[in-house]
Amino acid sequence: MSKEGEYPYILRIIHDIMKKLIAIFLTLTLMLSLVACGSSQNQTIKIAVAAPMTGDNAEYGIGFANAAKLMASQWNEKGGVKIGNKTYKVEIVEFDDKSDSDEAQLISEKIVSDPNIWGVIGHFASGICMVAAPTYNESKYVNISPSASHADYSKIGEYIFRNNTVIVVETKTAAEIAVKDLGASKIGILSIDTEWGQSAGNAMEENVKAIGGEVVLRQEVSTEAVDFATEVANFKAAGAEVIMVAGMYGTLAPFAVACKNSNYDVNLVGCSNAYTENLISIAGAAAEGIYAPVSFFAGNPDPKVQEYVKAYTEKYGSAPSALTTQAYDSVGILLEAMQKAGKLDREAIKNAIYQIQYDGMSGFTTFDSQGDAQKVFTKIVVKDGKFVVAEF
Amino acid sequence: MHALIGTLINGIALGMAYALIAVGYSMVFGILRLINFAHGAMYAFGAYMVYFFVSLKLGLLPAIMLSILMSGILALLIDKVALEPLRKKKSIPIATLITTVGMSFIIQNFLSIEYIFTSEKKGFPSLNLFGSFTVGNVTIQSSQLIMFVVALILLAILTLLVNKTKIGLAMRATEQNVKAANLMGINVNFIISFTFFLGGATAAIAGALISGYYQVISPTMGSLIGLKAFSAAVVGGIGILYGSVVGGLVVGVAECLAAQYLGSNVRDPMAFVILIIILIIKPTGLFGKKGISKV
Q1: Per-residue model confidence (pLDDT) at position A40
Q2: Contact: A226, B216; criterion CB under 8 Å
Q3: What is the predicted pLDDT for the residue at B295?
Q4: Which stretches of chain A drop beneath a pLDDT of 70?
Q5: Do the domain assignments include residue A267?
Q6: Is CB count within 10 Å lower at the N or C end of chain B?
Q7: How far is A352 from chain B (nearest CA, A)?
Q8: CA distance B76 to chain A (A)
Q9: Which residues of B touch A (CB under 8 A)?
Q10: Which residue is closest to B265 within chain A, CA to CA?
Q11: Domain range for residue B121?
Q12: What proportion of chain B, given as a percentage, has pLDDT over 90?
């Protein structure tokens, strides 16, 4: 009896053990497959580019997207971004804010609702950036604007960076061109009536005064203005020798035309955003002799820059602008910071950006404690229908 | 003093171009009692057509001619496609008004279509054909003179057309009483189409003149100028041709003076400030007649 009874008992034990083993095995397989599933889903990381893709500033926005895609494809060709011990492909997602605050607000909310977006490159105009930035900062999404130049933008929060120099630094070089290089003592300032235009105009005024120049007249116009006959006559009457323009190409180009048509031989100095092909295509011969300080210049003889310019030109048919290049570098900075952080953690990525020393196309870039990029400027001028390095 | 003269020259030249646009509002209003809000967009369309034909290397003058034709036809089509059906159905006036607003947006968006025009500002060939010359301290641009002279000649032709020709007589008859004019054997539908064509053509000429002066165009360029010209038409008394000319000059000069003496920011609102002041003092406009209420 007992022998007969022992046998099934042992069997039962074996059976039990087998059952448990299978259960453990199944659970393990399930868990492993889940993990595997999870990691295969996260094989790509997304970076958002939010900028005006249509409307007046579309040239800038499309440039941002193009540059970002170029940088992403270059990383992907090299295998992708190595974070910890996994590598990820980079995907760029475009958002069109139409240079509109309401649209930018909606987009920022859309972006922070996607957990696989690890950073935002954009927006374009300072005013628009400052509408969207608080949303990114609250949700701990790193936001690098390649173009925002308003002083208060990066003060919005720790996660808000700019890969553009603040207007005070930029206009310092502009003032230097006007007062020191062109040797003018009487400076006129034309600014557009946006938040950016006003602070840029103020910065120009301060910088000109700081190096001994005199601002004889400051005039403000709307961004849509095309009739500058009155303004030109006023500058002429005030005896301005150099006029500094705090506006986009949409203002600078027709203003240059108005100066030329009024037989007013005056040197114009713009901001870094004057460096676009549109300036020359609109103003034509009137664009001759417009100066601008830029962080990046495609005509730079550095082979590394030339290689990038060639790659960009082959892909998109025109040379990259300074702001476009800052967008290109912004993606690079973000990806390198992610690699340095070693984990997909928004706080770690943010901290890595503060530490970064990035040798990009728009100069050797570091960030100060405010999140503002520090760069060196090149002075350029339009000569024979082309931008060249200015010689004084 | 020099500044004042320069400002006046700029204001008068611009004012004449505004008058040219205002006349288009006035003519259509005279005949249909309709404010054609698509008129500003027609102005932009005219400028873009010139830009388009110039980019095909047709030369500036042929490009302007073609643009005038195209804009005239577009204005005519707008009437045929959208406004005439509404008139036939005797729909309320506000429906026609809203339709013209809608049309202006359709045209504006057409002008910002990607691959054809794109929504960015574009350079426009200069009309400063004979350069600029300086008299004393005042610089006069030949584009300003061209704008003034061309607008003046066209306005004179239009006045002659309306007052001295058979078709002008028919237009005036239609303006007074559509039904009676029809009974007298006037082809009222043709007169309406003709008026729209004229409106579109003058808007295109104004578009070419003003764009050639500023040398820059954008799809939305017509909206503000359209409203300014509309104010000019109302200031002068809408429906009265010479009223539009005076209205245009008043608006043009006033906004340039405002920019000179009150600051550039005051420039654009000036047309509307004048509009409000005139309407308070004389509700029918400077030369407007009291409307005869038809029973």
Answers
A1: 46
A2: yes
A3: 42
A4: 1-8, 30-42
A5: yes
A6: C
A7: 38
A8: 29
A9: 2-3, 6-7, 10, 14, 112, 114, 118-123, 126, 128, 132-134, 139, 141, 143, 214-216, 218, 220-221, 224, 256, 259-260, 263-265, 267-268
A10: A221
A11: 2-127+137-219
A12: 53
Residue A16 included in any domain: no
Render pLDDT for A43-65 as a digit per residue (tens, 0 to 9). 899 999 999 998 878 889 999 99
A236 in a domain, yes or no?
yes
Is there a single domain that holds both residue A148 and residue A213?
Answer: no
Crossing angle of helices B221-236 and B39-55, rounded to 10° = 130
Cβ of A226 within 8 Å of Cβ of B122? The answer is: no
- CATH number, residue A209: 3.40.50.2300
Best CA proximity match to A56, nearest among A281, A223, A268, A270: A223
Instruction: Test B112 with A54 for CB contact under 8 angstroms.
Output: yes
Is the Cβ pair B267, A58 closer than 8 Å? no
Q: Are residues A187 and A198 in the same domain?
A: yes
For residue range B33-89, list pLDDT tens digits in order.
Answer: 888 999 999 999 999 999 999 989 888 999 999 999 999 999 999 999 999 999 888
Cβ-in-10-Å burial (0-12, 13-18, 19+) of B110 comes to: middle
Cα–Cα distance for residue pair A383/B195, rounded to 1 Å: 49
**pLDDT (0 to 100) of residue B290:** 67
Domain count, chain B: 1
Tell me what pLDDT residue B291 has.
59
pTM above 0.80, yes or no: no
Which residues are CB-neighbours of A96 under 8 A, at least 6 positions away?
A51, A52, A53, A54, A61, A103, A107
Question: What pLDDT, on the 0 to 100 scale, is given for residue A41?
Answer: 47
Put the strands of the sheet holding A357-360 in their side by side order.
A357-360, A363-367, A373-374
Domain count, chain A: 2
Quick check: A58 and B121 CB within 8 A? no
Q: What span, in angstroms and rounded, lies between the C-alpha atoms of A274 and A387? A: 10
Q: Which of B130, B139, B253, B268 to mutate to test the interface with A (most CBs of A within 10 A)?
A: B139
User: Can you give the residue range of the structural domain that contains A152?
Assistant: 44-165+301-376
| Whether A226 and B214 lie within 8 Å, measured CB to CB | yes
pLDDT at A392: 79
| Structure tokens that stand for A194 in this block | 């946006």
| A351-357 LR contacts (CB < 8 Å, sep 24+) | A353/A142, A353/A144, A353/A161
Q: What DSSP letter does each residue of A197-215 carry, written as one string? A: HHHHHHHHHHHHHHTT-EE
A269 to chain B nearest CA, in Å? Answer: 20
**Structure confidence at residue A284 (pLDDT):** 86
Instruction: State how far residue B128 is from chain A, nearest Cα, in angstroms.
Output: 7
Report chain A residues whose CB lies below 8 A from the CB of B10.
227, 229-230
In a domain, A353, yes or no: yes
| ipTM confidence score | 0.83
pLDDT per residue as tens digits for the range A342-366: 989 999 999 999 999 998 888 788 8
